Amino acid sequence: DKNPSWIDTPHDMYPQEQYFTGVGTGDSRDAAENNAIGSIAKIFQSQVRVSQSLQEAFLETENSFKSESQMNRNTRIGSNLELKNVKVQQSHFSSKDGLYYVLATLDRLETAGLYKDDISKNNASISETYLDAQNAPDKIKKYVLLSRAKAKYDQNQGLKEIYKILMPTKAEIPEAVTGDEINKELNEATEQISAGLQPDANCPPAVSDYIKELIGKIGFPMKEGRTDFIFKYNLTLNPAEMNRSDMTGFNWKLTVEIIDNISGSSMNAFNVDKRTLGISEEQAKLKIMKSVQEEITGSLYKKFIEYMAVSYTHLTLPTKRIV
Description:
Elements lengths: L9 H4 L5 E8 L2 H17 L26 E7 L2 E14 L4 E9 H27 L4 H28 L12 H13 L3 E5 L5 H14 L10 E11 L8 E13 L4 E14 L2 H31 L7 E3 L2
Parallel strand pairs: 5-6
Antiparallel strand pairs: 1-4, 2-3, 3-4, 6-7, 7-8, 8-9
């Protein structure tokens, strides 16, 4: 049971100047494939800087590349980036050591062409979205469109880095709109949108801090009086009935409503209803507040971004009208 030569010398079969190669082993074929593909992905993961832009949530989900063969595999290398066109070329099972071996390849020139097409399409989309933002009918839609252009621009920078690794001697692909232009417009648009707080009289003060943290992530200025968005919220805690003496707990409910004074609608109420236990009342309350912070700055933040992104691009999202 002699192992094939490609396990130790893959570049004899797939020349290094034309291919990236990865050899993986595993107890199953799938595990060996994942390891082989992962070894190629690592070449890019160490060199590609993936932007963690706050505007990523505005980026529309796209499948810009679909493999025509089951032998082609994509692998994620960042939040909005995939390494494309990885092909599983060879496989071998060694009865001697009980392992599967897989050889995966990435054709530099072929794959560079795919990325060049994606970059060009993104450039056109960025330019169109940026122009639409200049003609937006209201400031929220302008903010949403600029955020989407920013997200697409950041994604394109990652694609360009991948392209540069694939084709290091090729000239950079020119940009349709510069990042500086988008950032300047987006910062100005963000400053034009205001947010205000309207807590329930009995709401714990810490909840207001978490709402402020959410608004701070987006960057909207906070003001008193009538604002573009009003956050109405409350947190109630009620002692839970316990059948054990070593634990205490609370049933708690977080409710947040976001009123949109630009559209005259409001985002469907955000509700979290849970039970939290602790070895003491103090510990239980600390755990509750930690959960509340995570719900507001995580889940509610994403819901609010989704509300703006969908509501202001004329898609369907359930809202209730303000009478």
